[in-house]
Amino acid sequence: PVTIHRGDYRPPEWQVPDIALDFALGIDETRVSARLSVVRHADAPAPLLLRGDGITPAEVRVDGSVWNDWRMEGGDLIVDLGERTAAMVEVDTVINPATNTQLMGLYASNAMLCTQCEAEGFRRITFHPDRPDVLSRYRVRMEGDKAAFPILLSNGNCVEQGAGEGGRHWALWEDPWPKPSYLFALVAGDLVVNRDSFTTMSGRKVELGIWVRAGDEDRTGHAMQALKDSMAWDERVYGREYDLDLFNIVAVSDFNMGAMENKGLNVFNTRYILADPDTATDMDYDGVEGVVAHEYFHNWSGNRVTCRDWFQLSLKEGFTVYRDQSFSADMGSPPVKRIEDVRLLRAAQFPEDAGPLAHPIRPDSFQEISNFYTATIYNKGAEIIRMMATMVGPERFRKGTDLYFDRHDGEAATCEDFVKAIEDGAGIDLTQFRLWYSQAGTPRITARIATDERNGERTLHLTQVVPATPGQPEKAPMLIPLRIKAYDLDGGHGVEEEQLVLLDRTEMAVPLGHYRSPPMLSLNRGFSAPVIVDFAREEGELEWLAANDDDPFARYEALQQLMLDTLVTAVSGKASDAGAVVDAIRQTLTGSAADPAFVAEAVLLPSEAFIGDQMVIVDPDAIRRERLALQAAIGTALESEWRAILGQLAPAATLLTPLAKGRRRLRGVALAYLAATGMGDASELAFGIFSGADGMTERQAALATLAHGDSKERAQALDIFYRRYRDNPLVLDKWFQVQAWSLRSDTVAAVAALAEHPDFTLTNPNRVRALYGALSANQAAFHQADGAGYRLIADLVLALDPKNPQTAARMIPPLGRWKRFGDARAAMMKAELERILAQPGLSRDVTEQASKSLL
Ligand code: B3K
Ligand code: ZN
């Protein structure tokens, strides 16, 4: 496999200012004629390199005449244009969307045709430089059978349409904004629309359309509201106005990712568009809102200013995730959103940063760019942006982003361009901060408070270590912004003001002031930096912070740390006491200003995986055992509290206020705690909630709880759920998922059996993720001692790779964590990676992930 290096970047030798595409559409044969006006930018003659993947040119013409000066190199087309400095190059290709199971390029999904071009799918449609620094104005004509494809959509505006012969019709679309090929999109099919409009801040009316299959239109209301809210938010918070008269979204069932920000024509996975209370949970609703916002925000951070090359991916993704996180925080509860985001970062990104696939947010090399749509690029990328915003504050940050958009509008920019714009616009020196772009690994901070016995002066001593990662044995100290506050419980002269400490060296001392008794130290408040903190706390300090810290995130963090300490002690075989945890949870449950969503997050035990991350060698079985034991102890000790929560009337499922959502969330947590006790009536209670639920949040929570046990109600509920929703693919995904999440000891066998279920299919990525993605997120099941979980995942990768390498490759990283799981498991995990690599004809995607995972 070829490795591509960031340092090898060269500007394109040819630009393509204009491109006209002509599609004769058909499910199993689509003919594409492309007319590229090309202009040479290289000083000397250079051949025109047009990328192709799985296509062959039927004919090549230059300036109107058939041209024979071309050759194929791999899948690429090289056209020799002699001394020309400009030309009109035409290439005809024929593709088969029906057999395109990779879901990259032009493919068929439920009799509809759609495209996915990011990162390198356009070259599967037609020959093109297909690099993000080649921007063109597109003119797209499509023609097809009117009965099969009544709706014909592309980027920009529809400028003309008409009827053709033999029941055919056509449409001509023009996008006035130059864009890279990865933002091209086309959709053709039998779709219905939910229409609305939005008037922009300068008074322009934009037509909005959400296109779905007939029958789904009633489930698009939330997505539409989210779109309008996003448009208003981006005007208000970033001064960004929408720039076309039309904004369309199409929902597609078969989709590799969440959604795609094609200019003026976003294409979405149905799961991030469709929602109604009967079929979508509150979390699904939030997912719809967040992803709609994310893709909309890309119109500026991604489309108007795009990436120079794919090494700059975090330029658009990190920034856009930061923007969608801020939006969702504004739409709901900022602390709860922050907790959710940190939970995700710790679940998905920290393990990546600590394993063989660790890479900086701006990678130095890759083999297959699809493998770099990672939690590091997205979520750590967002944290890096957040730290800059924290250091300069909202007004100066806005000056920086304004400057960035001004300077680079219409350009393909770099991460460096962004940092420079923040530096210049916000007035801050980010020289050292830039290390966050180049160094991988999660910094580890050790904190210690020293006391000067003579005068009671307290000093916070901080040290930082950035761990070695593949290819980066030595690291320089980073600039780490830490929000801290030291509480004075004893009437000393401690400064109880929050301060922002900029830890910029390996060791640093921060004077805290005079405290008679040890201060209660709130550290990394709001998770101001994506780091791991080791801090030997004073007796009772975490309990105090969990109850009293005025930063809700820090309260959450203190309680989580208390739970972690208790669990880690228990897992390592030492005597542990649940008393402090129980007391802290009771405090949180009964605390006054309690937002139920916050309470639900705070009292939830850390995941098995996160407990494992605290240990040098992970013992999945002991973690499962001790976590269940603690859960049961909390369930028993606080039984009346949990019952009281469940005894209150559930809010109506149609009520989607943050308060209603929070109350449902807390009810789900209460049910899980009660069920963990194994109390006689727990299954009946869960089944009662399952049957009586008026919406999916409560129904799914009850089903998931039942799925952990082995009551007769479990089988009953699964059966009822299946029969009720077997025709709704998104809900059926949940049915597969709750079974793969189950804490039962036979879950691996159950997953193997479900893979044979008639409703299971490898051709739908959502279904694959629902079953197998849930299994690899289920630590004790995936790491079952006999290696059956590993085998199942490796079998899946091998079966899926020939059909859909992108989705297959995404299943590999859990196998790469073998160093952490003890010799016996490590040997089995490596053996599965080797078995994968031994398969002939493996994709580049899987080859890269599996071979790197062995290192
Ligand atoms: N930009 C797309 C990513 C699609 C990549 C597919 N390999 C989704 C998003 O981040 O908005
Ligand atoms: Zn994105």
Descriptive report:
Helices cover 40% and strands 21% of the residues. With 855 residues, it is α+β, with helices and mostly antiparallel strands. The chain is built from 26 helices and 31 strands. The protein folds into 5 domains: 174 residues, Immunoglobulin-like, CATH 2.60.40.1730; 114 residues, Zincin-like; 128 residues, Neutral Protease Domain 2 (Neutral Protease, domain 2), CATH 1.10.390.10; 86 residues, Immunoglobulin-like (Sandwich), CATH 2.60.40; 230 residues, Peptidase M1, alanyl aminopeptidase, C-terminal domain (Zincin-like fold, Alpha Horseshoe), CATH 1.25.50.10. 52% of the residues are buried. The strands form 8 sheets. It has an 8-stranded mixed beta sheet with strand order 6-5-9-3-2-12-15-14, with no helix packed on it. A 5-stranded mixed beta sheet has the order 17-18-19-21-20, covered by helices on one side. Strands 10-11-16-13 form a 4-stranded antiparallel beta sheet, with no helix packed on it. Its EC number is 3.4.11.2. Its cofactor is Zn(2+). Belongs to the peptidase M1 family.
